[in-house]
Write a structure and sequence with these properties.
Number of helices: 4
Low-confidence stretches: none
Number of strands: 7
Strand content: 25-35%
Strand order of the largest sheet: 1-2-3-4-5-7-6
Helix content: 25-40%
Distance between the termini: 29 Å
Shape: globular
Largest sheet: 7 strands, mixed
Structural class: alpha+beta
Length: about 150
Amino acid sequence: MIQLLRTDSAHEDFQQLIPLLDRYLSVTDGDDHAFYNQFNRLDDINHVVLAYENKIAVGCGAFKKSIGDIAEIKRMFTMENARGKGVATKILIELEFWAKQLNFTKLQLETGINQPEAIGLYVKNGYTPIPNYDQYIGMPLSKCFEKPLNL
């Protein structure tokens, strides 16, 4: 059974999952990893959800304030041995619920075109493609999405 925990980016389990995420992204992003990685700083992330299976952290996701009442989903990751169990969907739903509680009205995110599983996750959960925003404008490997949060 999957258990979820709301925390922040200082949590030890989150800190241990992030290098695994970055290793994975360095492969999917290829030569562009350094560009994308600069936007993944943890010091401005105060809302993290961790997923546990048998008391072991198997996934994470976060959001941070963007512009106005928009939050941006960041640092979504599921350990390989926990994939296909709905962990990422549970994390995403919890992030959405938490963002609603904090009066955000919309979530946005960026993922890579070389991450079809991530794209499938977001589409399955009601995110719609949008033009690339902010630092992702003009980045051909980026695909951006958004989802309104009905308050």
